[in-house]
Design goal:
- With 468 residues, this protein is an alpha+beta fold.
- It has 3 domains: 197 residues, Beta-Lactamase, CATH 3.30.450.20; 103 residues; 143 residues, Histidine kinase-like ATPase, C-terminal domain (Heat Shock Protein 90, 2-Layer Sandwich).
- 51% of the residues lie in helices and 17% in strands.
- It has 8 helices and 12 strands.
- It has a 5-stranded antiparallel beta sheet, with helices on one face. A 5-stranded mixed beta sheet has the order 7-9-10-12-11.
- The radius of gyration is 49 Å and the shape is rod-shaped.
Amino acid sequence: MSPRRLPRHPLRSLAGRLLLAVGLPLALLVLIGATVDYVSARRLTDESHDRALASLAVGLSARLEAEGDGDLAAHLPAMVQALSRAQPDDPLHYLVLQASGAPLAGDLALATLRRAETDEDTQIFNARLGGQPVRVVQHRYRGPDARATILVAETVNGRRREARELLYVTAATNLAIALAVVVAALVAVRFALRPLDLLGERLERHEIDELRPLPLRLAPHETVPLLRAINRLVSRVRATARARQAFIDSTAHQLRTPLASLSTQVDLLTREALPAPAAARVAEVSQSVQRLSHLAHQMLALARAGSEGAAPVPMAPLALADLLQDAANASLDAALARRVDLGFETGEARVIGSRWLLRELLLNLVGNAIQHTPEGSTVTARCGVADGRPFLEVEDDGPGIPPADRARVFERYVRLNEHDRLGSGLGLAIVREIAERHGAQVSIHDGPGGRGGRVRVDFQPLRMLSAD
């Protein structure tokens, strides 16, 4: 039965927690970096465009000296229009005012943006023109032949677009670096935690029959305390299993003697000439003693066969035909007492297992078949190989087991016939426990022609075994 897995959650995973610890600061750094980059990009583009606007204003002022023939109003628009074609997203607006404040050329709407003159010849400021934000350069020209105030304005669309483009480039670079760091961290975490994954896989394969300490020689230093704690736990479990097994063996030994003695005395008593009422009571006692002996044997067998906390059981290659021979010798008296025709069909089949556990499995299957079939029935036990898998099988022509009850009969203390005074409800539970310890599967089928029942134990596929 595979161990129940805990639901996966990022915070329950060391890799998830490490990646979260790396990823969150990186995401925060990328966000902060994007903000700083955008502010820097805006500052750089503003400075670049402001210098261009200031240069344009100075150029227009130089034009005032060059145009002495009075055709300034015709040349300035052509000059500004040429510059506007170079940046179509940001149309340029200009206005040249004479010293008296009279307009000389340009867009009269800029007159409302004019600011009071200061000690500086060039002023740069933000304003709104026609409902749109604009950047304005106001240049005071004081030449030998003319004095004027020049205003040049442009919208901020172009500079904002350039700032965004610069932001996209830097943000993409930062994001790529962050993703590369996360991927590198993921690979590093996977590599660093691989020993823990291997340890988990090994622990999952660590069967109860292999209560051996885990090796520490090649383990990472960080996992050594954990492995030492696991080894201490394994040692305690092994000691507990051995103590439990010793108790079971001692109990079995202590119970057999008084039960055998009691059974013998009751059998002798039944042979005495007793009054009818006393003879009936002695017969009842004899039946109870038989049931007690059978129940004690079944419970001890179940305790020894169970895998939970049991001591390791030596496994070795063995022939299933030899087990059938032992079962024939042990079950013959019970079959004769119920006049059951007990037969055995042996085939060449070998498995790796515990001889006494598999003998107990077969005796329970044969005993159940003999006990639960009518007198005069036929019970057949066989072994062989089918589809590369060794099997044991016990078949009878009795009432069989209804399909609805076939899963339930493997539970402990389940009896389909409540009037069965000798059954303990443990026989098939023992069979299942022993089969699971050998990696085998137990199944129940109908007998030949749909009559009776057939219990089959399929073992793991054949391995390459020596001829022994």
